[in-house]
Structures are given as C-alpha cells and as structure tokens.
Amino acid sequence: MIKILLIIGIGMWIFSIFGGNSMKLTKEEKKLVNKLNFDIDLLTELKKETKSELKQLPKINEYAEVLDEFYDGIHSKCDEEKGKEIVKKLKNKFKNKGYLIFLFSGENDFSVAVIKGKDELEILSYRRTDGINYGYENEDIIKKISEWKDKYGISVIGCGRDWLEVKFNKLPSNLDAFANEVYEFCPDSVDQGVGEVENLKLIIKEMNGVWLWWD
Length: 215
What we know:
23% strand, 50% helix
C-alpha cells in the first residue's frame, strides 16, 4: 500500500512539473490577455485544451489575406479535427461570457481563435470569408448565412479564406429543398465534394450543419 501511494505521489509530482505547469499561462501570455482585457480563466482553459501557446490574432485585409498586424483577439494552434472538437465543447461557455470561439485557418495552418462578441456572424466578418471564384464577396456570404441564422439558428464552427462550417440549432424541415439551395450557393460542396446532392442531404443531416468551400 505504501509503495502504491509513493508511486502515485511521484506521478503527481512529475505531472505538476512537466504537465500541469506547462498548461499555465506564461508571463507573456498573461500580458497579452490583460492587454486585450480578456477573461484569463477562459483563455487558460483554451490553452489546456490546445496545449499550445496563446498568440494575438492577425488582422485580415479586404482580400481575406492574413497581415503582419494584430487584431483584438487570441488564437492557439491546433490541428483541424481537434480544433473543431474544442470549439464545439467550449462554444456555449465562451458565448455566455461574451466571447466567440471558432476554428481559424490562416495561410497554412489551423488554430482555435477567440474574439469578443455575441453574434456568430461577427466571426465571418472578421475573417472576411468569401467565395470570390463564384463572385461572392464577404457581404454575400454573410447575407446567406444570416438568412439561415434567422430560419434555423447557427453556430460558426470554423472559417477560412474560402471555406466555412456552421452547425444548426434545428435542421431545415425540407432537406431536399435545402440541399439544392446549398448546391446552388456552393457548387463545390457537391462537384468537388460529396458527388451528388442526395449525398449532400445525408451529410447535412449527419452534421446537423453544413460545410461550404469555394475552390
């Protein structure tokens, strides 16, 4: 019994040095969080999930390009799938405290990002997501997603320069009509994605949402 307790004690000591402490905010991270007046407990929780450094979000120009300037937000690198899991897990908690959390893609990587706000559409406005290859400006994307928000309720799971993923609060009642609407708005969701509108309908139902991409 004494040996078991000793082993457990040593294990906890090792974790506190090499594991637990590494998830605490560094001096620089605390300085960033305080500068932006963000909730330090929420950002500490984000770092525990991503296990990556907290950095300030970059600004995005009118062409949806990432700049070497800063925006009032924070992000932490993470792979795409893990990032989506984190966003779904923390979305409501962050939103209830006045923050929007989402998967963010820059030029070549992904991270979980946080900005202040209540309206999910502010995420798309910040990232300037567009479908320019099909003639859609950022305003056009926001207009369409706003329509879906009014009808079904939405959460923005993630977005990048030319893609976005949203989750619905309630599924459209007519999935056949909605799948055709999605295909008309984003042909690549089928033509370079699931192959047929019928498959798109099944994916929408399975996801309780939709993933859009304009190649």
